[in-house]
Amino acid sequence: LQPGEITVGGVALHNHLLLAAGVLGTTGASLRRMLRLGAGGVVTKSIGPEPNPGHHGPCLVRTEGGLLNAMGLPNPSKEFVGEIEPLKDEPVVVSVYGKDPEDFKEVAGWFAGTGTARGFELNVSCPHAAGYGAAIGTDPEMVLECTRAVASHGLPVWVKLTPNVTDITTIGLAAEKGGASAIVAVNTVRGMRISTEMRRPVLGYRSGGLSGKAIFPIAVKCVWDLYEACSIPIVGCGGISTADDVVEMMMAGAQAVEVGSAVIDEVRVFEQIARGLYAADGVAAEEIVGVAHRV
Ligand code: DOR
């Protein structure tokens, strides 16, 4: 792939690789560090209308091929605005969540006026946040209204979808109709583990969301389906850790990707992927995006 600046869903990026929401996105310093380490753009931890301590632990456990989490959307709410103020000149996408369109609009509004957000990513897809996550992201009408509410601020809106639906294209089309600039696919897959020794679920919240390599094929299929149904750009997310994963996601239809779990294991993953992905004499992205649909 050819290296260089790109624009995806209205957001200018240094390369095709973004830091996914939730991972190391809780402070301005950690976001800046990921940009220094080669991320082409960063998505913040999701910010909501009220400060939230999150679920009680254990919140994150390793499982074969992935991570199972039920963090519970912990965040400092409005205080986060100051956290990313020093990152004004950087490609920062602010992830927001809420229980209804008014919440989404309010939270996005804190950032819209300050010039700190290049765009928003609507988290309508957390699998374990009663009333805030997938409850919204599985309802096409809600997705449309939340997207429309945030789009009224005049900045690009990306909508991050849940894979925990029978037909993801219905939700993607709702986001598109609401004025989304891009779709991000996907958030975590519902899952749980039980400790046979303790005879109880390993997560404090009991069930949670699975991320990492284990969900990569699920993410590829979601991107594939969305590419067939929707007209706006797709950002692939879910289990990406190598340059080949990025190329595969792009062949399924993604114009850029987000990397999350892999960063937890290897903080230099962006440099590693870029080394395998980019070459001055590489092909243009247009030659790869969606190519597998055209066989
Ligand atoms: O798996 C997830 N965990 N997805 C989200 O959207 C939020 C996060 C959390 O904070 O629990």
What descriptive keywords fit this protein?
binds (4S)-2,6-dioxohexahydropyrimidine-4-carboxylic acid; four-stranded antiparallel beta sheet; 295 residues; alpha/beta
In short, what is this structure?
The chain has 10 helices and 16 strands. It has 295 residues and is α/β, with parallel strands linked by helices.
Describe what this molecule looks like in 3D.
It is built from 10 helices and 16 strands. Helix content is 31%, strand content 20%. α6 (168-177) packs across α7 (216-229). It has helices at 28-36, 80-84, 101-112, 134-137, 140-151, 168-177, 216-229, 243-252, 261-265, 269-277, and strands at residues 6-8, 11-13, 17-19, 41-43, 60-63, 66-69, 92-96, 119-123, 157-161, 182-185, 189-191, 194-195, 200-201, 208-211, 234-237, 256-259. β9, α6 and β10 form a beta-alpha-beta unit. With 295 residues, the chain is α/β, with parallel strands linked by helices. Strands 3-4-7-8-9-10-15-16 form an 8-stranded parallel beta barrel, surrounded by 6 helices. Strands 5-6-14-11 form a 4-stranded antiparallel beta sheet, with no helix packed on it. The mean pLDDT is 97. The protein has one domain (6-294): TIM Barrel, CATH 3.20.20.70. 54% of the residues are buried. It starts with 5 loop residues before the first strand and ends in an 18-residue tail after the last helix. Bound molecules: (4S)-2,6-dioxohexahydropyrimidine-4-carboxylic acid (DOR).
